Amino acid sequence: MISFLISLAALILGYFIYGRLVERIFHADNRPTPAVVHPDGVDYVPLPTWRIFTIQFLNIAGTGPIFGAIMGMLFGPAAYLWIVLGCIFAGAVHDYLTGMLSLRHDGAGLPSIIGHYLGKPAMRVMLVFSMILLLMVGAVFVYSPAEIMGGMTGGKMWWVAAIFAYYVVATLLPIDKVIGKVYPLFAIALLFMAVALLVGLLIKQPAMPELWDMGNMEQITSKLSVEGHDMGFTNFLRNNPLFPCLFITIACGAISGFHATQSPLMARCMRSERLGRPIFYGAMITEGLVALIWASISSYFFYCDGWKEVVSPEVLNDYLAHADKQSFIDYFNAPRVVKYVCTGWLGIFGGILAILGVVAAPITTGDTAFRSARLIIADFLKLEQRTIKNRLVISIPMFAGAFALLWWQMANPSGFKVLWQYFGWSNQTLSVFSLWAVTVYLVRKRKFFWVTLLPAIFMTTICSVFLLVSPDALHLNPAITPWASAAVAILATAAFAVWYRHERASTHEL
């Protein structure tokens, strides 16, 4: 567990060292915040710092750092590096600076911020792009918990209706009435589950693959089988090149553009700019810690026969009955890993936490996605949101669109998989726009812009190359990856250099 423990320490140190550096670059001060200047009792509502932190954490987390980390560890211990480096130098920087820019722009949503720094055409693109993403989030996070709960009681369609009804209420009511009261409880439970599992890892001390084993993953996985059946690692790694697929698979635990749509919600509730680092940067680091724990648990589950401790003979027999059609890693997908590990390690109480992790967490991500969508549209239309009538004018068409997307997803056998794939790529692409907008801000304010320029170039490369080599996109020969990556990085750097030279020349003339 050396790599895991070093990674834990690195994330914590990253908050105190690099987080402080980014805070000084931005230079947070004591100017009045939007919640203090014009509270409206609906969205601009001053809240206690601890409550804002828990809401922000659950907004950006959901099942992202759990499911993404489990699937990301199929690439091996390289996932540790991406979670740690991505979280400290990209994700937390992205979340902090987009949140602080929203504060400086009166709680503005992401499209407005991008329009201010990247221009009106970019704003229009981002308005459509972010709306599609947010509606996809809502549809994806209705289906998965409804399917799980429908298998237990009530039927799937009943739970779809119930979750949608909750979404309507949470989207329309003031933020302190439902979200402000319920979210902290769910966030604390999610954190408690992660800490309890961390203790379990420290007690077991499994000999998991370390960072220096990254080049030997094929050798390690070739020895793994279940009663002669291939576990599916070789085929997975062959069809999904580590670069760039790992960086799309693990999003919320490293960097996620979805977070930039959520930060304005909390920017409208903060009492001071100086709370930005613990709320925005700190919540992302906390999410990284959760992702790191689940990555290690899945490493133990897959590579160290950890599944044998938590899977009953009945479940194993069921897998063997389907082994000819479904590999081990496909059968034991992320929700099942969560369920079996939590119940196996933590007993009945763990089962309750598992249900919370795979049901309540996505629901609480979906409701804030719809709330963010309402506020983004309201900002674009300049329609005040004090009155329930104006909120309904925006929400009714929005929920109709989300329901249509959900209906399509349920009517198609591969609908959920297709929707999730597009969600993953669009999520990371959204972070590209956010990072470039923040970079422009830092340049114009004559601040140290390298902290966002390098992540912006890197994520631009990832999202572009993923479209070329992903098995779900063009699926070109992965051998082109190095050349395509170099070409995209050079083009992005050259485009920035041209813009930077023009920007400096314009400033000099002024």
Distance between the termini: 57 Å
Assembly state? single chain
SS summary, helix count: 22
Molecular shape: globular
The class by helix and strand makeup works out as mainly alpha
- In N-to-C order, the SSE pattern is HHHHHHHHHHEEHHHHHHHHHHHH
Which parts are unreliable, with pLDDT below 50 for 5 consecutive residues or more?
A: none
Rg calc = 22 Å
Report strand %: under 5%
What is the CATH domain class?
Mainly Alpha
Major sheet: size, sense and barrel closure? 2 strands, antiparallel
Helix content: over 70%
CATH architectural category: Up-down Bundle
Q: How many strands in all?
A: 2
Q: How would you sum up this structure in a few lines?
A:
This protein is mostly helical and 510 residues long. The protein has helices spanning 2-26, 34-37, 49-61, 64-72, 78-104, 110-118, 120-150, 156-172, 179-204, 217-222, 233-239, 242-249, 258-267, 276-303, 307-310, 313-322, 328-331, 334-381, 388-411, 415-444, 450-469, 481-509; strands spanning 225-226, 229-230.
